[in-house]
Predict the structure.
Amino acid sequence: MTSKISYIKLIRVDIRHRGWLAALTCIGLFLGMPVFTMLYIDSWFSSSTAASVAEGGNATADQSRAYIIEQIREIFPGLLNGQILSYLAAAIAMLAVLCALTGFAYIHSKEKLDFYHALPVKRGQWFAVSYLSGLLIFLVPYVICAALTIAVGGANGIMTAELAGECVVAAAGGMFAFLLIYHTCILAAMLTGQTVTGLLATLVIAVYPFLVFGLFTSLKGIFFETYYGAAASLTDALAETLSPAGLFVSLISNTGHGVPSTRLFIAAAVLAVLLLAGAFLLYRIYPSEAAGNALAFPRTAPVFKVMICIPAAVFASIIAKTFMGMSGTKWILVLSLLAAVILCGVIEFIYQQDLRMLLKSWISSVISVAGVLLVLCIFQFDLTGYDTYLPDQDRVESIRIHPDSFWGYFEYPEDYSGYAGETFVGSGASDEGTEVLYHLAQAGMRNLEEGYTPNALDLADVDSEIDRDYINTVFCYKLSGGREVYRRYCLGREELLSAIEDLSQSEAFRKELFPIFHMDTSHVASVSYRDAYGVGTLMELSDEQIQTLLDAYKKDVLAVDVKVLAGNQPLGELLLEIPDENAADVSDENDTVNAYAEYGNGVQPGMVTLGSFYIYEGYENTLACMEEYGYTMRTEIAPEDVQSVSLYLSAESMRSGKYTELLPSLSSNVERYAYDDGSQDITIRSQDDIRIVLEYLEPYYGGILGSGSGMDDYADIQFEEGSSYYSYKIR
């Protein structure tokens, strides 16, 4: 029986035998953590000092340094786990592989394996010695370098108590990331009898769950017409949670800033324990004769071959199809079957290492090819009924929709609060409103059967029949039990408009629809407006006047006919400046620091400007309020306010003679540039020509359901007061 002292001696001896790896680990981590941190911080301060000297003044230098410190604090935890320096993340993964392979390389040699197992030490103890020595080779230098990195931050006045806590979390993320790859490589070593096949097995185990679940999502997007990728699907969560590589990336990217979710650490800990337990159990039954063979357990060879070949062949075909620029789904079948045959041969060669033995396990090869064919048939012929699925009406609690046109028409505050996906409307609808949306979904199913599919509309030519009359709309069904199901349908514009009209009879739906009700208007810092000129004009209003104006706007949008939003051109829009929820929280002493930073478009630090609060001709309350405060919406452009107009005319318009009335009326002083395809760019600077062109221009708005036609030809106007935000449609 081995004593505790001799057990510790075994670990010391093992570490001494791997002294080169310990030295490599120390040097690599020292350069990638404290040394890089010193250079990184110094580069920030050096560039800041140079800028301050150029501007002049000690106050500017102090403001600059304080601002730089705040910026470094935001990203400092990422210096401990590789989020900022990709070299460090790669080093963590590489060191994990080296620690595992050097620690358990003896099981791949018959002589060494017989020698070790002949000693009076239990297998479990040998496993623990190799495991712990490899862990210590990484862990001790990593902890020391992490402490030195934090000390570097403290010496430069960056470290705070809160930041130190975030750094500890980031370091823990780096350790868990190491453990995942370390345990994966150990498990791979137990499944194989050679170092080379062990490395291949490590790669397979690390990415296999991510590949399978990611492939499932990709195939749905390729084959299913009604598929819509929700922001957080079950397959994406499984791909991240069950994949060592996926969790490794998540730990590196999500623990380098702030405090990550506890779920991430729990998932990493559980997966690490499962991998280690599997490796330990396999080590206890590892056969001595397995050393030198491709696999430690030959009976598993056909199983691994089938499991690897099916998803890898389909994945390879999708990649090949993408690079070759081929459309459609038929090529995926051909390429997948070809890839399956090639992979079967490659895997069999790895097993046998003899070209004459490639057909030895032909049964597993046939099963692999048949499995690929079965998977593709399921998706090609929709054997699961994905596209034809419509939940029973009595199971539907609510339905929300998001037409594609909302992207270009509305701006919601939620769009600037991290990744939240599209803003859906309809959850506040009454039972009658939910029934209207359900009938609308049934119309989408009928359109699908008639060939009016979302993909067909996505690929349609501009101003084609389907482009003019249809619009893609995403549906979210909330079923009894809380489950949400997403589908995407191609809907007729008229039937969609009719449904929105019915739903708009409800004030609750209107408050969901219009972005003005998605924000706390008391937080609006300033209001600007754009009219036909398309140039933002700041309205000098008090807080009370801002609230009065926005209350008037709310009254107008609650009363407006939806047909006005779909068919009429607005007079202009309001722009509201609101606090940016993603902006870093800073203390009062750093207010001047933020003022030092340069921000474009006149946006104040920590604020974001939302537009698309459209004003139509019938918005009497809003227009009257603006008139009262001394602001009038201009509906026509005065030629003397224009510096130049640039026309962009498509090749089709030039060939068809669409502008035979406009172009001949222009003088010879215009600047023309003709392209090889027949399209032209024309720049106009003469006041006489500008006056003529303005008669043909109007601001381009798509409307709440889009325009129903494209805008191949458009114009940009340069005003005396600045560049226009709008592009103008040429009539």
Summary: Residues 1-5, 584-603 have pLDDT under 50 and may be disordered. The longest helix spans residues 19-55. The two ends are 94 Å apart (CA to CA).
